[in-house]
Amino acid sequence: MVILDRRFDWLGRQIAWTRRGSGPPLVFCHGTPWSSRLWAPFAAALADEFTVYLWDMPGYGASSKRADHDVDLSVQGAAFTALLEHCDLDRPHVVAHDYGGAVSLRTHLLDDVAYASLCLVDVVALRPWGSPFFTLVKDNANVFAQLPAAVHRGALEAYISGASHRGLRPEDLAMLTAPWCDDEGQAAFYRQIAQADERLTAELEPLLPGLTTPTHIIWGENDTWIPADRAHRLHEAIPTSTLALVAEAGHLIQLDQPVALATQLRHWLTHATRA
User: Fold this and answer.
1) DSSP symbols for 21-90
2) Residue 137: pLDDT over 90
3) Which residues fall in a coiled-coil region (predicted)?
């Protein structure tokens, strides 16, 4: 297991991160309600060719989860910009999943941070987004935050399980739910949903046609959280992008089809470093 053994202080928040390997910089961005642990095996596999960076967004994983700190997309984009500055990274390769797609796009398009390449994996980028459960929680976050622990765990496990097409192993489900199961984590889970706002992706949509950074889109064909029609729309919105659909994979493509995803990532990054 990869441990985030470094801490970066930013606006009162502690951002957990780590670095390993050697070669061109490669940064992985997780989504919600995930953490860097979802990307850890892929980062480890690529550390022989890249200096890989893993981090947890504020409010997620091993990073701080203070109740008085906002965790919306604008905050996360600013946090990512600050992290890249802190690590002194010049034109890193970036791989992003889910919410991390919008985070990495905000840093690139709104903060003018240059990337060597960008790989978007089942990302939040185009409206509409959010499952029916996500919408229900967003409208009633204060009520959900007060659920008894056992009821919260049951709802959380059911919600997360729905992101997989093939079904989650017990150890994978435990890994994904663990950050959200204590009192601090339960409150943080519902807080990050309550602060979700499509306005913050709407700001990006007009800018996508002008994206010239080499961009590859990877999507699970069976993603029910963000259906594959978004992949085609995103591909059309970014004229220079390439697109690969992965069969028998849902939103948690990292766990549904790890070999296919690893093959796609290595092929793309090899191409991107030689371009």
Assistant:
1) E-SSEEEEE--TT--GGGTHHHHHHHTTTSEEEEE--TTSTTS---TTS--SHHHHHHHHHHHHHHTT-S
2) no
3) none
CA 75 to chain centre: 14
* pLDDT tens digits along 180-190: 999 999 999 99
CB atoms within 10 A of CB 183: 9
**81 CA to centre of own chain:** 15
At 15-39, the pLDDT tens digits run 999 999 999 999 999 999 999 999 9
Q: Is the CB of residue 168 less than 8 Å from the CB of residue 174?
A: no
Q: What is the reported pLDDT for 1?
A: 63
Assessment of whether the complete model's pTM goes beyond 0.85 = yes
Give residue 214's region: left, alpha or beta (phi > 0; psi -120 to 50): beta
Q: Which run of H or of E encompasses 144?
A: helix 141-145
Q: Which domains does the chain have, with CATH numbers?
A: 6-273 (3.40.50.1820)
State how far the alpha carbon of 21 is from the alpha carbons of 4, 43, 49, 53, 274, in Å.
Answer: 14, 9, 7, 9, 19
